[in-house]
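PROTEIN SPECIFICATION:
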Amino acid sequence: MRGPNYLMSAWVPLPPAHVPPSPGEVLPLYAESSMRVGRGDAGLLVWMPIPSPRTLMPIPATVSAKLARPRPQRVIDRPRLLTALQAQVPEHVLTTVIAGPGYGKTTLLATFAEDYVPGVVWYSTGDDDADLAVFVAHLITGLKRQSLRIGNTVRLLLEEGASESRSAATVAGAFLNDVHRIRQPLAIVLDDFHTISGSEPVVEFLETVIDNLKGKLRFVIAARNDPFPGTSRYRVRRQLVELRPDELAFTTEETRQLLEDCTGKPPAESLLAHLDKATDGWVGALQLLLAAGIRGPESDIPAGAGPAQPGSDLHRYLTEEVLRRLPDALREWMLYTSSLEELDMDLLGTLFPPATCDANLHELLSRKLVTAYHGTTRPVFRFYTLLQDFLRARFQREIPGAKRDALHRRAAAAYASRG
């Protein structure tokens, strides 16, 4: 069984009711080629045949931008949250930051990652990462930046056959085999995980890994909803740290810092009280209020605007108020560019006249409608999440399908040319 044609591949956890096979027996549940198995502690040791060069499958391509950690240029100091993360992440296998758009999840975790000594692998997930092979390939690539020895077993597993023929538990077993030697509480941050939380293979893979993780690897997940159906079991086991809207909402002091940063002077106490009442500390609404020029108790916020949350009347009112104050050409340009994940000058220059892009970005920065991050060679920009969601909805409603499709094709070609 362990002859030259086989390589020890992975430890795979057994289903609760499954009887371990005899050594060398082919187990139907996991026998996805001619794999052989042996007994292990509460699981199986899996030996895979080494494929010939003719049977190797290409590893899914990874997008380097997804593994680039955002580096916000200007952030509000939030020591109460950052101190908690620095202390709790190393001690818990799973940390979740759960809230709707506009609560500063990405900015908070990017700031945490700057000072987290054991190291962070950052992965910004999107719709196309719902494929298990794509997801795991990005994890491997990110981990190899920490150690080249990590990921060899998973790589062999993916090369040996198409991911559709692999159970998520098998891939998880190979991943566990690769990461069990990690000695420091290295954190994998999965940002925007809600975009792929509907992928059963990805969720099963992560649950299997987290349930059976014995080493120091830690997972930090930011999403708009709970990442797994069974997240509560980690809470019961005291393996989970949670941050939710109540913790993420700005305190009065944090709101004061935001206003000083935007206006250059200390705000009046009456204004602070006014904004606290209007927004409940929801930073997305605070940003829209400031962008709309609503900066005092006498401001015309509609009566009964409703709670400060995404999709509320207040959200719609503020966003419409922001857009109403913009020139028509700039507003249309924002609709088109809202479909992009980032406003990168190199990419924008291939889609629109460069001079227009430069002027529009400067205008959006001055109006505080985008936030700047450090890119590889120059800053990149992003719309605030609430504003982007609103713009994308209008883009779908107001721009003809043919024009939307043409823009998407050009953007896809530009992304492909950049690798």
